[in-house]
Amino acid sequence: MTKTLLRLCILMCSFSLFAQDYFPSNSGVIANNSNYTAFTNATIHVSPTEIIENATLLIKEGKVIAVGNSVSIPKNTTSIDLSGKSIYPSFIDMYTTFGVSKPKRGGNGPQYGPGRSGFYWNDHIMPEQDVMATFNYDAKAASEMHKLGFGVVNTHMPDGIVRGTGALIALNNNADNSVRVVDGETTQHLSFSKSVTSRQSYPSSIMGSMALLRQMYDDAKWYADENVDTKDLALEALNGNTNLPQIFEAGSRANLMRADKVGDAFNIQYTIVGGGDEYERIAEVKATNATIILPIDFQLAYDVDDAFLAKTLSLSDMRSWNQQPHNPRLLAESGIEFALTTHGLKSKKSFSSNLMKAIENGLSKQKALEALTTIPARLLGKSDVLGTLKTGSYANFLITDGDIFEKTTKLYENWVQGVPHVLANMNVRDIDGDYNFKLAGSTYKLSISGSTSKPNATLESGDKTLGTKMSYADDWVNFTFKTADSTKKEYIRVVANAANDISLNGKAIMPTGNDLSFYANKAKVDIAVKSEDKKKEDTAETTPFMSPITYPNLAYGFTEKPKAETLLFKNATVWTNEKEGILENTDVLIKNGKISKIGKNITNSNAKVIDATGKHITAGIIDEHSHLAAASINEGGQNSSAEVTIEDVIDDEDVDIYRNLAGGVTSIQILHGSANPIGGRSAIIKLKWGESADDLIYENSPKFIKFALGENVKQSRSQFNARFPQSRMGVEQVFMDYFSRAKAYDQAKKSGKPYRKDTEMEVLAEILNKERFISCHSYVQSEINMLMKVAEKFDFNINTFTHILEGYKVADKMAKHGVGGSTFSDWWAYKYEVNDAIPYNAAIMHNAGVVVAINSDDAEMSRRLNQEAAKSVKYGGVSEEEAWKFVTLNPAKLLHLDERVGSLKVGKDADVVLWTDHPLSIYAKAEKTIIEGVTYFDLAKDKQMREAIKKEKSELTNLMLQDKNKGLKTQPIKKKEKVLLHCDSMD
Hints:
Strand content: 25-35%
């Protein structure tokens, strides 16, 4: 009772403490509280690395005055004895939306221009947004955070690509914003997500968001250099926020790498909100040098009772459940700094249990405490006042009955700015637990919880749960419960003393009025057993099983990245695609990633010899038009998106990479879609399964861009149908306008005078300067003619018409212009402008002198491009050798890569396929697919992988069943179907 009165006194005094000294008072005499409060005899964690036993913490006016073993206590001090208790700095969550209402959606339908004047041209850029303008302190939400140990949160408006500034708020329920707001402008926030309040269509993709951010930074510099006569409040705010910590919400490992890529281009080191999957490429994450704000939203085990349904689970989903709790440990072991956050949790109540799970999976308690205190304090620039209990810091601390990272530890109080927020009464004996007792021949189990705050009890007898009411005060328990006989409304009342930690002693008053002795024994209370268990926990290896991480971290990934080998194929049929033609019983030597020798009776003592008798060796297949291995295909927010690039959104974990390797494909051009006349830039990659996105891209890759004609770009099937152009005539005018502007831009750039850098114009100027090549989506002959004429007006050539299903009508003009044709083998009539397509198209263009390739535009078809090439033998009588070039050498020529790949020639890259049969046969399988001397697909190893996948899934299924049997929550299995991207796919 004495300590309770002391706290009441401290709380009342706090009101005068928090009154602003220049505010008038009309409610009484103005008085300042200058008393001290001392917490004595406690184990004090001054910081994660400094612990003082039997120490004193002295605070005054919301600040730490002193801490240590020999603190001098002034006379005007209220002392609180915390013998047996521990004190920790309270936690900091630096990524929340605390006190901020969810933004409201701004309506439906596209909007192609900005909705604001005096600001940046894109509504999704809002650096001027100040979270304090809409902040409203939420005492209820603060109380929930108190229970988790948090005393301070950084909050922001979660809306837009650039979201404005955040604010640092002390969770002090007994003050107002004049005190609670530690700093009203702490951070600047960014993301890849558009504002829900604006209907502005651009950007409509991740690559569009990246391009917009780059252009924004360029424009901000141009504006800062006073090159703009008009006012732009957004850019002014952006430039004004540059000295603030820049927090970027990525939400996944892939987006983390993308965000860092944007930041690196402008020498900005973002602090990045991760996705919990950083462990998959830990070395790459470390190389960013970014500090991670780490969610711990671990997924639940799947309910795998239904064996048939369980088979539909992917290995990657099962691994995520198993591996995610290890992520904090792996980051810490790799030296990657991170702060923990409640962000992303559906229920913040799960934060503590997930944190304990991370610790069970190997995260050290010191690292956990650092991630909740000193690291966020440093990132926010507040190490002098937050994160520790050193002199001068805010009096933000937690009082517990022991190690804060133990499941059984009780958190009693959370002090914020010297004000107590009582969560449990530490002067009340904690009697939580399970008790067993017998009464009148019946056996009961009593479970008590919340004894130090809100006492609650449940009572079971056999398989019945009995209605129970309980109260607890001054070490006495009173509870009443209904008898097990449901036919009678009879009750038993119990009064028992809880004077020790192991039992309840008293009496029970039966329905008859008779008194019986009552004794309840607490389950598992033997101190010696507890001590021994603790000793075993400390000495035993307790880190739970973790599935091995592979590259990529899903089915068919490599446990170790494969390396280049010296390989000697003997006695194969070799399709050279060179003047030598097809060679029988020939050897091929691969060395240092190159084709070293082709001939007979080759020897090499260091080579791995492969008997290829009866088999065929060819160059790897090249798909000129693909949309696999990309996270985004179209940026359709405006009629030109030359500023975006597919290289920003390569998906190195797309299983279709592996599937295409199994079909003998070694290189692809990932094209932008056909949402607009001028699309985005391409990514030309090698299918190096297991390598990172950037390492898939060709070194010194030729520069390509996607253009498009026809129904897609004029939005023939759009429900809104509002963006220019709306006709084929309009498409031509888009090209004329943009190239005219690009020409003027290029002249200004070359003049030597200052100019505003415009990435879109830079790319189009590269076309005019013949530094970038166009692959154009095309169908109708009139439009094909039109674009060639436009190109000739500006003195450049179209490189490739892709699809080009009416190419046979204009093959002579194509040959004269010098443009290649990359077509389908026999697709037709899938939309109106394809009605005139014929399967002889490839052969007719080839015979007219056009460089012809067969492409897929489809992740399924690309696995069988060898068969697609064979169709040209049937439709048009193309020779087998020339037909094979349609998927190897010819696409290499179209992509300006024929000096490196596309044929078997000494000195070229060893991108080679060993086939079990004639490569144009439907019976042929790729036995080995090799890129630069590295075997990325092997038919025999594929079989072994399938068995390993089956075994690992079985192991993980058993672990999930164990979780369910322990009573842990599970999630239902939901069927997932992989979405295959095409020309018209939108994010």
